Amino acid sequence: MRFFQNWSVTSKFVTIYVSILLVSLSVTGYMLYRQAFQSAIAQAQTVMEQNLLQTKASVEEKVKLTENISQIIAFDARVQTFLDSDFINESFQLQDYRDNIMPIIDNIMRQNANIHSIHVYMSNPTIPELYGGYDGFYAMNRIKGDSMYQSILHNAGIQSEWHSLHKERLLLMKPGITAKADVLSYNRKIFSNRDYGISGLVEIEITQDELFKAVKDSISGHLGSVFILDSGNRIVSNNIPGTYGQNADTVGLAGLLDNGRTNKLATVQGTRSIVISIPVTGPNLRVVGVFPVSHVVEKVSHSIRTMLVILTAALLLLSLLVYFVTVKLLSRMKPLLKAMKQVREGSLDVSVPVVWNDEFSQMALSFNHMTGRIHDLVEKVYKSELLEKEAELKALESQINPHFLYNTLATISWVSRKAKAPEVARISDSLAKFYRLVLNKGSSETLIANELDMVKAYLAIQKFRFEDRFDAVFEVDERVREYITVKNILQPLIENALVHGIEPKRSHGTIIIKAYLEDGQVVLRIIDDGVGMPADRKRDVVEGNLVSSEGSGYAIANITKRLQAYYGEHHQLELFSRTGIGTVITISFAARRRTDV
């Protein structure tokens, strides 16, 4: 603030306005950037996930086709019957074997170019092996010792299973030929119709190139990296050079994948990327995509740069406009400043010309009125001094009146005792005590003990008036008497209870006054068994629509306002009333002793 003290008003205004513009435009630009960035990321996550879902659907389609082909073979009645039969007439059966059984596999191979090989393993030892290039019927003994087949052969609960990436099985061994193709294989049991045992096992191999062809053709591959992972987090797709057969951790996916579906932002090898993982039904594979965020928000960044140029130009233009407007407006203050200097020097006949009707013109007009009324104000000061003297006399008079009232009531009490009228003496004593506590030496607050004593004096007078048609019961926690409250808040409520509750009842009634402490608050409660009030009248009382209560001079709304002014939000007034039952009014406020004030 000291730095700006010697600046001109124009400099201060322009600096403040330009700062406001700079901050607002910066915040607006940042918010637009964040929204555009987040929107682009969210849209990219959705689009990339849809592309990977299409890739997944393509892989699952081939997986489902492979499984269906295995079912065709496993449930073919000719194949089942053949595997259950013993070879006796070898020449006849061998011809049937070649003409009717082998063509089943051959036809499937010709109709499904994506299938690499089909092997049928036979449990029947009497049937000779018959095979071609990549298909044929083989003895079960070839695979009984292979660990890859142990789970399906020895677990009755498994009818079929997929095997992850491995080298093709070359069961027909030829010189100079080695297994080259990487395949995934699917095995299904063939059950015997004779004894429901395992009569054979069909194995279908499909190359990873064929099964994952959709990964290479995926549009998503142009925006990032798409992998196929097996259950051991091994990369089984070779669409990205150098990653085939590697563990997912080597490409920065350590700890980022779980068994379920994933679509999140993560840092992969130091690059903020979108990581999407989608499980593939069947061979326990996952399609995983890693898409750098920079590729996604490249167009957004270009748009943001364009927006920053526009915002900067707008800032410069608005700054010039603010400077021009500020200079023009403050130039109209100069005549007023000049006139104020003349007044400071003692000239009261100064006036400022008023041309427009804006705030500056209103200031000039107010200044002219001010100089014209200075003389009137001087006279009013003199009159104010006279009024002050008069107020002092009235204050002195108000102090005399209570003493006169007390003396008069004391005289009445003395005369009534002399005339042997104890009831008159008791009423005059109660009335004197009541007014002494009501006036409270002009103080706006009093002890709760005084407030309760004042109510007792008031009830003593009213019991005489009502001819003992009601009882007053006090249930007071003695600790509460030492706390302070706004004076005269109980008497108007008790007067309401008498006038509007007990008196219309036309029978004996009871008023209960409770005072106690609860959770650091003073609670005052007035309970009467009078006629009560209907719901509409209760609503008017609570909302303050009733200006005053008859016979008391105080309305509940007035008491509420006094409590609000004295305690702020630390008070509460509750009203319960039921026609024919009675009324309960509860006041609670913060407990404070006189030393706390």
Automatic annotation (TrEMBL):
Q: Which PROSITE patterns match?
A: HAMP, HIS_KIN
For the keyword Cytoplasm, the answer is no
Which molecular-function annotations from GO does this UniProt entry contain?
kinase activity
Q: Which UniProt keywords apply?
A: ATP-binding, Cell membrane, Kinase, Membrane, Nucleotide-binding, Phosphoprotein, Transferase, Transmembrane, Transmembrane helix, Two-component regulatory system
Sequence ranges assigned to domain Histidine kinase in this UniProt record: 486-593
Q: Domain HAMP, which positions? A: 336-379
Q: PANTHER family under this entry?
A: SENSOR HISTIDINE KINASE YPDA
Listed name of the protein: histidine kinase
Transmembrane residues, as ranges? 12-33, 307-331
Which reactions does this protein catalyse? Answer: ATP + protein L-histidine = ADP + protein N-phospho-L-histidine
Say which species the protein is native to: Paenibacillus glycanilyticus
Localization: Cell membrane
Write down the SUPFAM superfamilies for this protein, in alphabetical order: ATPase domain of HSP90 chaperone/DNA topoisomerase II/histidine kinase, HAMP domain-like
* Bilayer disposition of the protein: Multi-pass membrane protein
Q: What is its EC number?
A: 2.7.13.3
Q: Which SMART domains match?
A: HAMP
CDD domains documented for this protein: HAMP (cd06225)
